[in-house]
Design brief:
By secondary structure, the protein is mainly α. Helix content is 65%, strand content 2%. The chain has helices at 3-21, 28-35, 39-45, 49-60, 76-83, 90-106, 112-138, 147-159, 175-191; strands at residues 163-164, 169-170.
């Protein structure tokens, strides 16, 4: 099996293990056995369990933010709704919530999970969205002073309430509520809440 296919197979197996057993209780022996590969093959492709987790969240990053992509022909609100995945399929949505839930539950014991999530998802999502916002500003479609800060505001509006860090609960609403919530965030982000004169 080519390395790219082997990596995809390993990530699929490892994701299932992490979500059923948890990050802490999953060992590289478990991964090798589930994938029916040697540990030597596993370590040739991934340096360890943390690298497996980083690759998993990397592969799921686009389920959070549909970038990079070209949305220049769309109105800003429609483009942002597509970028923010208002119509994500239920299986992908369940997967991203399950990964977030696992991180929240296990991050105290394994702080590297939260760090990996920030570096591989949060920071990259913000950078990709900032790049898209900067391009829109160059085209004169929006006016912003700091694309990175503006990207952070929008991402916090949409995703910040999903995880309640105090309780460790994931409180993502139903599909229809989520779509309405993202559309509301996009509208407030683009138009504010002050009535137009």
């Amino acid at each position: 099996m080519p390395d790219t296919d082997q990596r995809a197979h390993i990530l699929d197996c490892t994701t299932k293990l992490f979500l059923t057993k948890g990050y802490g209780r999953t060992t590289t022996d478990d991964v090798a056995a589930r994938c029916r590969i040697s540990k030597q093959t596993l370590y040739r492709l991934f340096s360890g369990k943390h690298a497996l987790f980083a690759a998993i969240v990397d592969s799921h990053r686009q389920s959070m933010l549909a970038l990079p992509a070209d949305y220049d022909d769309l109105p800003l609100d429609v483009a942002l709704e597509k970028i923010l995945q208002t119509d994500i399929d239920p299986a992908s949505d369940r997967m991203r919530v399950a990964i977030l839930r696992m991180v929240v539950l296990e991050a105290r014991q394994f702080p590297e999970l939260e760090d990996i999530l920030h570096r591989h998802v949060g920071d990259r999502m913000r950078a990709e969205l900032a790049k898209w916002l900067e391009a829109q500003a160059k085209h004169g479609r929006i006016t912003i002073d700091d694309a990175n800060a503006v990207a952070r505001v929008l991402l916090d509006m949409v995703f910040g309430a999903v995880i309640s860090k105090a309780s460790g609960r994931i409180t993502w609403p139903s599909r229809s509520e989520r779509k309405s919530q993202i559309q509301r965030c996009v509208s407030i982000f683009l138009n504010g809440i002050v009535p137009r004169r």
